[in-house]
Amino acid sequence: MNLVILTGAGISAESGIPVFRGSDGLWEGHRVEDVATPDGFRRDAETVHHFYNLRRSRLLEVTPNPAHLALAHLARHWPGRLTLITQNIDDLHERAGSPDVIHMHGELLKSRCTHCGAVAPCTTDLSRASLCHACGGIDVLRPHVVWFGEMPFQLGLIEREIQQAHLFAAIGTSGRVYPAAGFVSLARSCGARTLEINLDSTRSSPDFDEILSGPASETVPHWVRELLDS
Ligand code: OAD
């Protein structure tokens, strides 16, 4: 049986990484246009670097929670094909032991050179003075993340995996950002059973066949146990 899992910010919330959409519409006090768009970066690269530097240093202090660990356990024991797609830019799935994670919105612990395209590991602060070790350029590095107005990574592969899925599960995502928000409809139209796991109901909830409500650290391990027993 082919299983496709999509995760969002909710799976990392209990590790201490805040979700995106605050009730004030701001992203940790910033307007999204200022810190998560190519225009925002062109206007004020230092502010954008500072925003991601804070997130990167915080990421290095947190650890995977039981939901990440349960999905890694599932990957080790699932007899069929399992594809794990995340919208998260953290590396908590990898640290929990999940292999081959598809980071459709990029990775915070990598930088990308806007001059030569080189992608490199990045665990320290970036600034306009940072040097690209591949081409020697200065003031060329940006976080290797997808901003609004940019194309998510590996969409072709993701769509192929969803088209072949028997079960599609979305965990901890609000279903407000496309194209990920449209994956459930694609999965359903291709015949997959669909499951939403979330703390609350979302605007996508009516599109799912089944809903599992509660904190991911409890619901995901429970779901994984049931799946492996079934
Ligand atoms: P959101 O912040 O929009 O939604 C987080 C979801 O997680 C909500 O539906 C919450 O109900 C749920 N949630 C919160 N805590 C939870 C918990 N402990 N257990 C289970 N669920 C919980 O985050 P995403 O849907 O991931 O894109 O956001 C999608 C994209 O929007 C992000 O990848 C990012 C952002 O703009 C880019 O940066 C391109």
Architecture overview:
This protein has 230 residues and is α/β, with parallel strands linked by helices. It contains 9 helices and 9 strands. It has helices spanning 9-13, 32-35, 38-43, 45-59, 66-77, 92-96, 155-163, 183-189, 216-229; strands at residues 3-7, 82-86, 102-103, 106-113, 119-121, 141-145, 167-171, 193-198, 210-213. The strands form 2 sheets. Strands 3-2-1-7-8-9 form a 6-stranded parallel beta sheet, with helices on both faces. Strand 4 (106-113) and strand 5 (119-121) form a beta hairpin. Helix 5 packs parallel to helix 9. 37% of the residues are buried. The model has no long low-confidence stretch (mean pLDDT 95). The chain binds 2'-O-acetyl adenosine-5-diphosphoribose (OAD). 2'-O-acetyl adenosine-5-diphosphoribose is lined by residues 8-10, 13-14, 19-21, 36, 87, 105, 146, 172-174, 176-177, 198-200, 202, 215-216.
Short note summarizing the structure:
Helices cover 33% and strands 19% of the residues. With 230 residues, the chain is an alpha/beta fold.
